[in-house]
C-alpha cells in the first residue's frame, strides 16, 4: 500500500465520492453525445450539426435559385454562431449533404470538387461553393412563421431552431448513421414517393401497423441503386421492430465479348462501398488465387459506374462467378437497420416504420397549427390598421387639416376618430398618393379578403379533419415534386431472390482446382502433397510415426475423416498444410479428444455411402451426405459403448459385405441385410467368441472378393469359390481362403 496523500492545506477543501463524481460527469458526457451529436430527431431527421448548417445557409440567403457562396463562409458562420466544434468536422458534414452517392436526396447543392464514389476527398472549403437544394428549402419552409421553437445559441448572442418545420420526410428519405455512448443509429434511405403514399394512408387509417405500410414502402432505396435480396419476412420483421438488416448486392449484366466470350459488367455497387477499395480487393484476391474463376478486373467508369469482370474461360457459369464474388467481396454488403432516434427531440428510443411516419405527421400538424396561429395574428394586426384607415377615408379633409394644423396630430386623430395608437401611426405613415378613391376600394377588398381568410384559419384550427386534409394536400405536393416519374424520385434499388446454387459448388469456385495427394499418418498428422504422387516410400515422418492413409484428390474436395470415437470430421482440402514438412495434427483443425485415433479418410462424393462398424462388430450403412460436418465438432455417426471403438469405415459400393474377425474367421453375406441409417449403433455383423472385428469390405459378387498381400499383389476369389464363406449376417464364419494376409486385413 502506498502512502496516503493529504490534500494541501489552506482554503476550502470539499471531499466528494470519486465514483459519484465520475458517474455524474460520464452521464453528462453521454447525454451530450446522444442529444447533441449522434442521434437524429424523429421529426426532421437531422442531427444538430446538419440543422445548424441549413439554418446558417438560410440566414445567408443561399436559396436554390440564388448564387452559391464559398463553403468557408458557411462553415465560418456555423462554428462562429451555432456549432462550437472543429471547422473540418462541420465541413465534412456539409460535404456529405452534397454527395449524391451518399445522400438519397441531397440537401446541399455543391459546386466544385465534393468527392466521389472512389473515396477521393472533397477539395478544401476555400475552393468549393454551396447553396441549398429544393429539399432543404422544404425542410425550412415556414421557419419565419413561428413554426418551431427557438433556443439561445451556445454563447447566448443569437437564437437557433430546436427543430426544423420539415415539410419533407427526411428521417426515412435520407436516413441517418451515428454512434453515441451505449447506443447507435442506422437508418437507410427510402423512396420519398413511397413514404408519402404510406403517410397518406396513415392519415386515413390511424393505427395501421408497419407490416401493412410495407404495401407502400417496399424497402430501402439507396442512392447508388443495387439489388436487395433479403426475404420479405425478414424485411417485415425489421420494420416492425425497428431493428434488422438488408443484404444488398451490386447490379450486374452479362455482356458479349465476341467469339463466344463474355464479361460481367457491374453498373451499380452497394451503398457506402468505396469503388477503388472494392477493385483493389478484387485484384488482391486474384493475385492470391482465391478467385480461380476470375482472371481480370477493369475499372472503365466515367460518370457512371462500369466495372468489367473477365472470367477465366468462356465456359465459366456467370451466376457461379458472381456468387463467388458476392461471398468474398463488398459486391454484397449488409446494411443494418436500427431506428434509434430522439422521439420529440428528447427520448432516445428504437421505433418502428409506423411510429417514424407518425412522429413526422404529428410534427407537421403542430407546424400547421403554429403557422396558422401566426398568420391569424398577422391578419388581426392588419385588420386593425385597415379598419382605422377606412374610418379616416370617410373624412379625409378633416384628417389632412389635423395633420397640417395640430401640434400633436397623433393624439388629435386618436381623439377625433376614436383610433388606437397603432391605427393612428398607420394613418400618419400613409403617403399622399395613397389618398385616392381607388385606394379606398382596394382597402375594402383587402379587408373582405382578410376577414374571409381569418374565418378559414379559425375553422381550420377548430377542426382536426381539416388539419389532416391540409397536411394531406402538402404531402401530395411533395410526392408530385419527387414522384417516380422524376429523375430524383425514380426508385433506384430493386428487389430479387438470390440464385439457388449449392454450397459445395460455391466452395469449389472459391478454390483453384489442383491435383493433390493427401497423407494421414498413424499419429494423426495430415498434409497435402502437390500433384498425384504414386511413390510414397521416400516420405519422412516425425519420430516413430508412419504412413496410415494416402489418397489422390483435388484442392476443391472436402475430406471425410472417421475417428475411433464414432465421429466423422470434415476438412477442406485447400486448407491442408503443404507437403514440405510433416504437416499438422488433425486435432488442430477439429475439436477431438486426446487419445482418439483416425481410422479412415476419404474425399467426399455426393451420393456415396459407407459401411461403418465398431470393434464389437456392430455396424450399418451411412450416406456420405448425412455425415458432412460444417463445424469443428464433427458429426456423430456410430454410437460406441465404453471400451468399444469405431474400427472400420469403408466405401459401400457393391452388393455383398465381407467381414473378418481378429479370430481369423471370414464371413460373406448380402449387403441388403445391413440397414441404412444416419447415425446409431447398428446391427451385429459377425459373431465372435473372442476378440472383435479386424476388417470389412463391400464388393460386387460378380467381380469376386479381392485383397492385397503385404507385397502389394492382388488376389481375387470368384463367386463359385466363395460358397463356403457365404452365410447370413451374424454368423460366425470360417477360416479365410489360402493366401489371405496374416494381418487379417483386406489391404494387406
Explain what the structure shows:
The protein is of the alpha+beta class and 748 residues long. The protein folds into 4 domains: 46-163, Alpha-Beta Complex (Topoisomerase II, domain 5), CATH 3.90.199; 166-351 and 496-510, Gyrase A, domain 2 (2-Layer Sandwich); 367-481, Topoisomerase, domain 3 (Orthogonal Bundle); 511-722, DNA gyrase/topoisomerase IV, subunit A, C-terminal (Neuraminidase), CATH 2.120.10.90. It contains 18 helices and 34 strands. The strands form 11 sheets. It has a 4-stranded mixed β-sheet with strand order 14-9-8-17. The longest helix is centred in the middle third of the chain and has 41 residues, at 353-393. It is elongated and about 150 Å long. The mean pLDDT is 89.
TL;DR of this structure?
This protein is of the alpha+beta class and 748 residues long.
The low-confidence runs, each spanning 5 or more residues with pLDDT under 50, are none
Shape: elongated
Give the strand tally.
34
Percentage of residues in strands: 15-25%
CATH C-level class of the largest domain is Mainly Beta
What composes the largest sheet? 4 strands, mixed
Whole-number total of structural domains: 4
Amino acid at each position: 500500500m502506498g502512502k496516503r496523500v493529504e490534500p494541501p492545506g489552506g482554503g476550502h477543501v470539499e471531499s466528494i465520492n470519486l465514483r459519484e463524481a465520475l458517474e455524474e460527469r460520464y452521464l453528462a458526457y453521454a447525454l451530450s453525445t446522444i442529444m447533441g451529436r449522434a442521434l437524429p430527431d424523429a421529426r426532421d431527421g437531422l442531427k444538430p450539426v446538419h440543422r445548424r448548417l441549413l439554418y446558417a445557409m438560410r440566414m445567408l440567403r443561399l436559396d436554390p435559385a440564388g448564387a452559391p457562396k464559398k463553403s468557408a463562409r458557411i462553415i465560418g458562420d456555423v462554428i462562429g454562431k451555432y456549432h462550437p466544434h472543429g471547422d473540418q468536422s462541420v465541413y465534412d458534414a456539409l460535404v456529405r449533404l452534397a454527395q449524391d452517392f451518399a445522400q438519397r436526396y441531397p440537401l446541399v447543392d455543391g459546386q466544385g470538387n465534393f468527392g466521389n464514389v472512389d473515396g477521393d476527398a472533397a477539395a478544401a472549403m476555400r475552393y468549393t461553393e454551396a447553396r441549398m437544394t429544393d429539399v432543404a428549402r422544404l425542410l425550412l419552409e415556414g421557419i419565419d412563421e413561428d413554426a418551431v421553437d427557438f433556443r439561445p445559441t451556445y454563447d447566448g448572442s443569437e437564437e437557433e431552431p430546436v427543430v426544423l418545420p420539415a415539410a419533407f420526410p427526411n428521417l426515412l428519405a435520407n436516413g441517418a448513421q451515428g454512434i453515441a455512448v451505449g447506443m447507435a443509429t442506422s437508418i437507410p434511405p427510402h423512396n420519398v414517393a413511397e413514404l408519402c403514399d404510406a403517410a397518406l394512408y396513415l392519415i386515413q387509417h390511424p393505427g395501421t401497423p408497419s407490416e401493412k405500410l410495407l404495401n407502400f414502402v417496399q424497402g430501402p432505396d439507396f442512392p447508388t441503386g443495387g439489388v436487395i435480396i433479403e426475404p420479405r419476412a425478414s424485411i417485415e420483421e425489421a420494420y416492425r421492430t425497428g431493428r434488422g438488416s438488408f443484404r444488398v448486392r451490386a447490379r450486374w449484366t452479362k455482356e458479349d465479348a465476341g467469339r463466344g466470350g463474355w464479361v460481367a459488367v457491374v453498373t451499380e455497387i452497394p451503398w457506402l462501398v468505396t469503388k477503388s477499395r472494392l477493385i483493389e480487393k478484387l485484384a488482391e484476391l486474384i493475385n492470391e488465387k482465391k478467385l480461380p474463376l476470375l482472371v481480370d478486373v477493369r475499372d472503365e467508369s466515367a460518370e457512371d459506374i462500369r466495372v468489367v469482370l473477365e472470367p477465366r474461360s468462356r465456359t465459366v457459369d456467370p451466376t457461379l462467378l458472381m456468387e463467388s464474388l458476392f461471398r468474398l467481396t463488398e459486391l454484397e454488403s449488409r446494411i443494418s437497420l436500427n431506428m434509434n432516434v430522439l422521439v420529440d427531440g428528447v427520448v432516445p428510443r428504437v421505433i418502428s416504420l409506423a411510429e417514424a411516419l407518425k412522429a413526422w405527421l404529428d410534427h407537421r400538424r403542430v407546424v400547421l397549427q403554429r403557422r396558422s396561429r401566426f398568420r391569424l395574428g398577422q391578419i388581426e394586426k392588419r385588420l386593425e390598421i385597415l379598419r382605422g384607415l377606412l374610418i379616416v377615408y370617410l373624412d379625409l379633409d378633416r384628417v389632412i387639416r389635423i395633420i397640417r394644423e395640430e401640434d400633436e396630430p397623433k393624439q388629435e386623430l386618436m381623439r377625433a376618430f376614436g383610433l388606437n395608437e397603432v391605427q393612428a401611426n398607420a394613418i400618419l405613415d400613409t403617403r399622399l398618393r395613397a389618398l385616392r378613391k381607388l385606394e379606398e376600394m382596394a382597402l375594402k377588398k383587402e379587408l373582405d379578403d382578410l376577414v374571409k381568410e381569418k374565418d378559414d384559419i379559425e375553422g381550420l384550427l377548430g377542426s382536426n379533419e381539416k388539419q389532416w386534409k391540409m397536411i394531406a394536400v402538402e404531402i401530395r405536393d411533395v410526392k408530385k415534386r419527387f414522384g417516380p416519374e422524376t429523375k430524383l424520385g425514380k426508385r433506384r434499388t430493386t428487389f430479387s431472390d438470390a440464385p439457388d446454387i449449392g454450397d459445395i459448388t460455391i466452395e469449389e469456385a472459391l478454390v483453384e482446382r489442383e491435383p493433390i495427394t493427401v497423407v494421414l499418418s498413424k499419429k494423426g498428422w495430415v498434409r497435402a502433397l502437390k500433384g498425384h504422387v504414386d511413390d510414397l516410400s521416400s516420405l519422412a515422418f516425425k519420430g516413430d510415426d508412419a504412413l496410415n492413409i494416402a489418397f489422390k484428390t483435388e484442392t476443391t474436395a472436402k475430406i471425410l475423416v472417421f475417428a475411433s470415437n464414432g465421429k466423422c470430421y470434415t476438412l477442406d482440402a485447400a486448407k491442408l498444410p503443404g507437403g514440405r514438412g510433416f504437416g499438422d495434427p488433425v486435432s488442430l483443425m477439429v475439436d477431438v479428444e486426446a487419445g482418439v485415433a483416425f481410422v479412415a479418410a476419404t474425399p467426399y462424393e455426393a451420393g456415396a455411402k459407407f459401411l461403418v462398424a465398431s470393434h464389437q462388430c456392430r455396424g450399418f450403412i451411412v450416406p456420405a451426405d448425412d455425415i458432412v460436418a460444417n463445424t469443428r465438432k464433427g458429426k456423430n455417426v456410430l454410437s460406441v459403448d465404453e471400451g468399444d471403438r469405431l474400427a472400420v469405415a469403408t466405401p459401400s459400393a457393391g452388393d455383398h459385405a465381407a467381414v473378418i474377425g481378429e479370430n481369423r474367421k471370414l464371413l460373406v453375406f448380402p449387403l441388403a441385410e445391413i440397414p441404412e441409417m444416419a447415425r446409431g449403433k447398428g446391427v451385429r455383423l459377425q459373431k465372435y467368441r473372442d476378440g472383435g472385428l479386424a476388417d470389412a469390405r463391400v464388393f460386387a459378387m460378380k467381380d469376386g472378393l479381392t485383397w492385397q498381400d503385404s507385397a502389394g499383389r492382388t488376389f481375387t476369389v470368384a463367386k463359385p469359390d466363395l460358397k463356403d464363406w457365404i452365410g447370413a449376417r451374424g454368423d460366425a464364419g470360417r477360416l479365410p481362403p489360402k493366401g489371405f494376409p496374416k494381418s487379417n486385413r483386406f489391404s494387406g
